[in-house]
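Our consortium's second objective concerns turning raw sequence data into structural hypotheses that experimental partners can test. To show how far this objective has progressed, the report includes one record in full. It was chosen at random from the queue rather than selected for favorable results. The single chain below, 477 residues long, was entered without modification.
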Amino acid sequence: YVPPEHTGTRFLFDLIDTNGHPTRNGTGVLFATDPRHPGVNGTVCDDGFDHVAATVICREMGYSCAEGWSIGSNSDFLNAQQIVIDNLHCAHKDQPFTNCSYNSEHNCAHSEDISLRCDRMCDFSFKMIDYTGAATNNASGLLIASKIGTDKEGTVCDDNFNGAEALAVCRMMNYSCAASWSKRVMWPIQDTLPIMLDDVQCNIGATDFTDDCLWRTINNCRHSEDIYLSCGCIHDKYTFKTVGIDGSPTTNGSGLLIATEIEASNGTKRAGTVCDDSFSDTTATTICKLMGFSCSVLWESVGDRNSLYSTVQEQHEIVLDNVECEEDAEGTGHCSYSVEPNCKHVEDILLFCGTAEQCNKPAFTFYTVDRDNQRTTNGSGLLIASRSFYQGVGGTVCDDNFNSASAALVCREMNYTCSVGWHAGTHWDLQVDYDITLDNVMCGPNNQSFADCSYDIQHNCGHSEDVFLSCANDCTY
């Protein structure tokens, strides 16, 4: 790689055939001429060439957009030409070529010459169809791109297609959010359609496909890469509630999370559990806010609690997977999700929501108990971590990654000044009556509260790893 050495040069561009004759259909080998220096003209190497450079050059020639490019044209005429531009880089498609950088010296062969396809009609509309080819009315289906002003339409390849692209396309179809997208061959109708777009790339927050996105109509895809898209905000399509172990709705926002469709699909409103894949604190808080609470105090997958909820779980399918909300989601924010889960019920979400007052309190409180299961007043004994808003249920703390800094901070959480020691082991029969609530507790010496520590609420421990802690207010030893 040679760093680009030129900027500010005004080249004239044309598209030619392999015999050097100008084409007039927007397609041909790219030929560059420097009007300031007679004899400096020739082809353009593909090193560094991308969507942005293609668009800039097409616009320099009076076209509106670049639909794609290829390499490898071969002829005696082309092989006799100079290669005048290499490592071309343009930062933005709306800037002129004089803002681009390039090398005049190259390490290319003519097999790398750029052939470009430009067009003056660049607007696309989108729709989703079902297996018959009819437009869907449920905001989901095979994504079809139609070139406005023509009868050309076809599928969209998944290359580079991600969240920004899904959201831009959904917004063009008057939806506020993109729910999910995937690639697959599912219906015979796909084989009757061309692949219309490839390498779709949109700016974050794109609102106009032509202005904010780049794409190619030349593709290297198969229909197994066709995009299936679902649009719509999660709060427009689902309601949420929590239920207890008997299946009854809870009023405190704590329990097994159940999602229910607002509008029926296939004649029935689907209702079921939510899988923990991609689930996060932000997602938990978003759903709690949709349920009228202020935050998520805690969430976890059912895991070892499966036996408690097994009856109600068996009555429900898993309806949502990969629910993932944006960091700034405020309860009506954008969340992506899948309606085709690949989960088991042990991955169902247990959610614990809190009021504004509860959200300012710690998720866990700590205390110690003696061999008779009575709370101690001297800060010494078996360490119990209690989930503040889960019916007061407490459990032991596993010693994995537990250290002196963790011990000292937990003692401060219990209003003692310091820790005078800790150890792990099985000493009392009562230990087996508790769940193990926390694992991999890691606190640093500069942490101010337990909220600053990291921990896991799923564990791989036995009670022989339970933490016994001794706290004190006299730390002058």
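The partners drew two points from this record. The chain is about 15% helix and 35% strand. The mean pLDDT is 88. Both points have been shared with the crystallography group to help prioritize constructs.
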